[in-house]
């Protein structure tokens, strides 16, 4: 394979595939007119029947934008498939996708019966690692998808963060920042996934340890459209030490009540506060940021 082709696969992916360059194929088998020619040139581009290719069971990507697929299929109809997919051979006329499922699906929509493909050899762990790396290298991947892929590579491929960084050409601090996103409350992760929060917003929220405070600031960001700079200022203000007022201090919240407070904050996506007045009495405060936010909270309360 030429250097140009190797680079096209991405540094991490091509590094995994190098070991299969020297695999020798058997050229002695014959085919009938009803069969597609048996492909033996591992490492080269070959035309393979779509019907002989099965999807990668280790594919971390589960959703494909249907409009984008249709757009790509129309391009394929006019120009053909420019970038080959990558497969591994299961037997003489059966292959499994390593990377390129989007191109594979779009080619089917375009009505193609054959598709250009690189053929490689890979075991199951290599398949998983290559699929994850190919997934990470997509330009439109959101930060949560990247973080989940990083975590899978660590868990399922037994990699350390330094090794993972080498695989995906990122330094350890970048890898760590992505992985820390997975410690944020689910509501915040969903906002990052849906594009409501940027990586800059997320980095600011990560510096806060209290989930209820994270959710409170998250609501401010969404409701008021805060910039990353404004979010960082709000986080700094919230982290400033509070001056204790003179007089009797409210009773501290027990661990059990703290958990209730955190659960309510997660349920309402707002900073809920329990205040105890003694003898089992107290109040619950749920702040709202606007009339719309109040309506949202009341709807959750089924009011």
TrEMBL record:
CDD domains: SPO0J_N. GO terms for biological process: chromosome segregation; positive regulation of sporulation resulting in formation of a cellular spore. The keyword DNA-binding applies. Residues 46-136 form the ParB-like N-terminal domain. GO terms for cellular component: chromosome. It comes from the Bacteria. One of its GO terms (molecular function) is DNA binding. SUPFAM superfamilies: KorB DNA-binding domain-like, ParB/Sulfiredoxin. Residues 1-40 are annotated as: Disordered. Keywords: Chromosome partition, DNA-binding. Residues 17-37 have a biased composition (Polar residues). The keyword DNA-binding applies. InterPro entries: Chromosome_partition/occlusion (IPR050336), HTH_ParB/Spo0J (IPR041468), ParB/RepB/Spo0J (IPR004437), ParB/Sulfiredoxin_sf (IPR036086), ParB_dimer_C (IPR057240), ParB_N (IPR003115). It holds the Pfam family ParB_N. Belongs to the ParB family. This is ParB family chromosome partitioning protein. It comes from Mucilaginibacter frigoritolerans.
